[in-house]
Amino acid sequence: MSTRPQPTGTAPVVVTANQGPSAARKAVNYLVLIVLAVFFIAPILYMFIGSLKPADKVLNGLAGFIPESLSLDNYAGVFARFNSEATGYFYNFYLTSLIVSVVIVIGGLVVNSMAAYAFARLRWRGRDAVMLAVILLVIVPFEAIAVPLFYLLNGSRNTYYVQFIPFVANALSIYLFYTFFVGLPKQLDEAARVDGAGPWRTFLYIIVPMSKPVFASVTILTFLSSWGSFLWPVMMTDQPRYRPLPLEISVFQGQPPTDWGQIFAFGVMFVLPLLIVFLVFQRWFVQSVASSGLKG
Amino acid sequence: MASITYDKVRKVYPDGTEAIPAIDLEVKDGEFMVFVGPSGCGKSTALRMTAGLEDISSGRLYIGDDVVNAKSPQERDIAMVFQDYALYPHMTVRQNMGFALRMMRLPSDEIRRRVDEAAERLSLTALLERTPKNLSGGQRQRVAMGRAIVRQPAAFLMDEPLSNLDAKLRVQMRAEIDALQHQLGVTTLYVTHDQVEAMTMGDRVAVMKNGRIQQCAPPQELYENPANVFVAGFIGSPKMNLFHSVLRHDPDGSVRLKFGPQDLHISPASVARIRGLGTYPEGPITVGLRPESLQYTPDASGDRSIDVTVNVVEMLGNESLIHFVAPVEQASDADVRDRAQASDEEESLLAGAGSSVMVARLVPPVRLAEGQGVRLTVDTDRLYLFDAQGQALGPARTP
Lengths: 296, 399
Ligand SMILES: Nc1ncnc2c1ncn2[C@@H]1O[C@H](COP(=O)(O)OP(=O)(O)OP(=O)(O)O)[C@@H](O)[C@H]1O
Ligand SMILES: [Mg+2]
Prior knowledge:
- The complex is a heterodimer.
- Chain A is mostly helical.
- Chain A is built from 13 helices and two strands.
- Chain A folds into two domains: 22-71, no CATH class; 88-295, MetI-like (MetI-like fold).
- Chain A has a two-stranded antiparallel ribbon with strand order 1-2.
- In chain A, helix 1 packs across helix 13 (260-291), helix 3 (90-120) runs antiparallel to helix 10 and helix 12 packs antiparallel against helix 13.
- Chain B is of the alpha+beta class.
- Chains A and B meet through helix 8 and helix 9 of A and strand 6 and helix 3 of B.
- Bound molecules: adenosine-5'-triphosphate and magnesium ion.
- Adenosine-5'-triphosphate binds next to helix 1 of chain B.
- Chain A: The chain crosses the membrane at residues 28-49, 93-117, 129-152, 164-184, 214-235, 260-281.
- Chain A: One of its GO terms (cellular component) is plasma membrane.
- Chain A: This is Carbohydrate ABC transporter membrane protein 2 (CUT1 family).
- Chain A: InterPro entries: MetI-like (IPR000515), MetI-like_sf (IPR035906).
């Protein structure tokens, strides 16, 4: 600030502050982060290593972390134990989970984003009232409507579609899309309209490409909840052919002989798609946030 | 290309704000029309109604011969340049410029050709594959222009397209837009709150206040014959000095206007030129005096000179602006106040009751000391006179 000459004799002060945290501070930060990371990663690592070890070496305290006598036997074992009409086939569980989750995620992205666009940008009678209803629905837990829903859909038990139909339209997703769309500059919609795009093409060419972050987070959230869905499949399926992975993993755990190596192998196969989806979309998410220079 | 006609167009926002009570205006085919006025006067509203982005509450809007009230923006065949440019951030410059053509489902080689041509015209060729965030403000502005001209639309609508640029770039783009418009000959509505921009660009300028057009005329006409006090005060920089005075008729046909202890005389010849002045009732009248109608004449004597005290001197190289305290009351028309900047009001306070600060533009510049008493000569042939309603006396004008 000051341009006044320094009094003679005063040594020039070298300012080192504001060049980032000090070394000690940094060390503490790293320490905290490392501890946290260990807490989060350790169980997954434990499961992964355990899934590759013979049963007697799995639940072995800290030694469970030691990778020794590794093999894929446990995986083969899981497949072998689900290999008849009575137990169901492992690939059927996987297929069920995949079909149901993919339909819920993709169908949900389409339906909920379009609904949110209608709430955020189109003008229609009763819009605010309906939006309020949607927001109220966000706080209603699924457990509260499970029983009425059960009676409603009782005729469709043991199908794929009964497992995804109730979850495609999702109030929370609509709400997430809505808040994001409302925050996008309205001028871009207007520019698109003047450029000759109707509501559909404005949505498709302008809104959607600018909304990658919210599409990514809704994908992650929806996949997480649908992949782990438990209560509804318990109510609606009793044939192994239509049972998803979370149901079978619990069945498997309760079935003697309890082989922790195989249980962990099942667990790894269950978690793998979650990790993949998360990693793929998280990168997209971070990228989009970094590149969204919306103001022209 | 088409004309645009407003027939009693009115806008009431859903919350009850009457932004525009009524606009009647015909913008001719190929004309460059500027809407100018203070903030909140309804310029953007008028433009957005034209674009179809706002509903028209009543009245009729024609583009060409068609009533377009009920038409959506995409059916109106107009292109718009937004203040913040509204470039699509996820598209390259080429995609931005070609978007409207793509929406028209033109074949892609035709789109390519037209975008290349527009880019050439606007020196954007080297930037076609960049995204907007990697462009400077001026370049973005050009892309926004480019997006409009590839369309070859019936009309261009521009809402303060230069207000985000720095002063130098603004002057340059002003000239370029003007040239472009004349080359293309496309009907253009241009909104600005900057009267200099309005004066330099428009074929005609519509001066707006409170949602009404006060006067619509070519720039020179606005300057020379403002229809009312508002236009007089709005157009011109530095702005016109407006003050209250008292009018007296002399037996010889001349007119005297009270200026503090002194009088300004208007010769019978001039009185005859200003319609309505010869018969104007004696008494209060509002007088306007352009800063350039004052001259520094230390030795002058007579009935056209005034004695005032210098307040502030601005030396501007080829001219000087002398702010001086005059023994008259500033015309307190609320209309004029709209545009009065805080500094003006401060100056008036400084001057005290019964006096006001006025400005003279002296060419060549004269260096005067602050606080010095000086004698200025008023060109009384170029005075502006306004009645009690603020309407100008003088040649008949169409609003
Ligand atoms: N969506 C709206 N709802 C209610 N009133 C509005 C709305 N938009 C504008 N107005 C009001 O209408 C009047 C005109 O606004 P408008 O934006 O047309 O002014 P403007 O001349 O463009 O001003 P500026 O130079 O500041 O852009 C203002 O009084 C404003 O408050
Ligand atoms: Mg505006």
